[in-house]
Amino acid sequence: MSGSAAEVAAAIRQHDTFLLTSHARPDGDAMGSQLAMAFALDALGKRVRLINHDPSPAPYLGFPGADRIEVSSAAAPLPDVPLHAEATIVMECGDLLRTEVKGLERPTIINIDHHVGNTMFGSVNWFDASAAACTEMVADVIDALGVTWTREIATHLYLGIVTDTGGFRHGPISARTFQISARVAATGVSPALVARDVFDGFGIGRVRLTGALLNAMELHHDTRLAMLYYDDDVLQSCGATSDDTDGLVNLPLGAKDVVAVALVRKQTDTQYRVSMRSKGDVSVRAVAVEHGGGGHVNAAACSIAGSRESVTRTIVDAIGHVL
Ligand SMILES: [Mn+2]
């Protein structure tokens, strides 16, 4: 742990205009951190602009303020980004490049993150790997700023927690996680309704894709490793989109024997994206880092060049070494 919510709050008080951003291909914690922070800064009379490289996942588009997030990949370049904010707040990013957004650099960059390996790229850095979600940290910043939690703020804090922990099942879930969740419920937000929106908000293509992925699953190393694969043809045949793949990598972990999963996605004929999940001490982060990627011990990703066969062999071997 380094830095503190108080230091972040002090830096925020010194400015009036902010750019809020998070990582490319945002997840619930990325979006929740951004919007909870945005509603809190609104309450202080600050001006904020929210920018991500990619759209938020479809199930979260009905969450309060979701339409405030501008998508830079759709409207690049962003002509007035460098002009209209004194400070940038980057949440959920191990380094600035993870945003894939250009024009973020300015003297004050506030870095709030819980990913091991954060490069401390900000002028103000708060890093806390003991947070189960970045929104736990944002909750502390909002308290340090003295802003009362509205239902909008509470909803987004909870969105980060419920997604990053997979519904309170993994990651560094702590007493703090439940203290924040208790306060969320006390604002009148329904945890069950948020969970319904998060986990059951997909189209039927997602359900078909689930079947297709699991039908084609391959098992290695005495059923300890499950390999999943898809490409655009698989998505199309299921009537699914890449949004629908979010979280499916976790499914094989439902089997007791399976302690690691790699989901391989074809990007081009010679480039594959590998998302990995694991249980306990099995470090898929080590495998990802070895191949130029990163992440957490139990959730990590990297991109590997080669053929489908060679990439699969590389991953099966590399995970074999950490089992
Ligand atoms: Mn997170």
Walk me through the structure.
With 323 residues, this protein is of the alpha/beta class. The protein folds into 2 domains: 5-199, Alpha-Beta Complex (inorganic pyrophosphatase (n-terminal core)), CATH 3.90.1640; 204-322, Diaminopimelate Epimerase, Chain A, domain 1 (Roll). The chain is 36% helix and 20% strand. It has 11 helices and 12 strands. The strands form 2 sheets. It has a 6-stranded parallel β-sheet. It has a 6-stranded mixed β-sheet with strand order 7-8-9-10-12-11. Helix 2 (28-43) packs parallel to helix 4 and helix 4 (134-144) packs antiparallel against helix 5. The longest helix is centred in the N-terminal third of the chain and has 16 residues, at 28-43. It starts with a helix and ends with a helix. Bound molecules: manganese (II) ion (MN).
Which descriptors would you attach to this protein?
single chain, 323 residues, inorganic pyrophosphatase (n-terminal core), Diaminopimelate Epimerase, Chain A, domain 1, 2 domains, six-stranded parallel beta sheet, six-stranded mixed beta sheet, 11 helices, 12 strands, binds manganese (II) ion
What is the percentage of strand-forming residues? 15-25%
In total, the number of strands is 12
Q: Which regions are unreliable across 5 or more consecutive residues at pLDDT < 50?
A: none
* CATH structural class of the largest domain: Alpha Beta
Strand order of the largest sheet: 3-2-1-4-5-6
